[in-house]
Amino acid sequence: MSQSDTLPAESRLNAYRSKGDFLDCYSVSLRSRPDLLEADMRVLANHILNSDISWMRGLLTVRDRLTGLVGMKTTDKLALEQSGLPLEERQVGDRVEFFKIYSVSENEIVLGEDDWHQDFRLSVLRTTGRSPRVFASTCCKRHNLAGYAYLALILPFHKLIARSVLDKAVTSRLASA
Q: Could you tell me how far CA 99 lies from the centroid of its own chain?
């Protein structure tokens, strides 16, 4: 289903990333999902990020407990910053799940967070046409040794999560926003 891919040239993440940054990209076909092709990008991102994968939620809980001890931002605290606005009305600075919106357009949303050890951005980009796909790409700008160590520790889990949420998103029903 999902596959490792190359960041599309039209992604806004290309303007964000620099030489030496970590970047990965995964994609999955949307050919059988016209509802996801027509969904607002905030709704699509929320659908992907809210994939009901119990082991992933367990990993995030462990991550939050450990990283909170060293002063890194935790997903549960960031999620409290969500506005009460409907997804389609959220703008730059608002949140989708615990991710801050940095840009949103018809076919791409860039989410992320800045922290003392690293800044990261997640692009959810949709292509249309004969071979429609959704791409999930992550770029990390590490600031110090803690950023490099953190990424090295989470990378195996990140790769598994990225592919799993894409696969789950294309096989699960789109919830109404």
A: 8
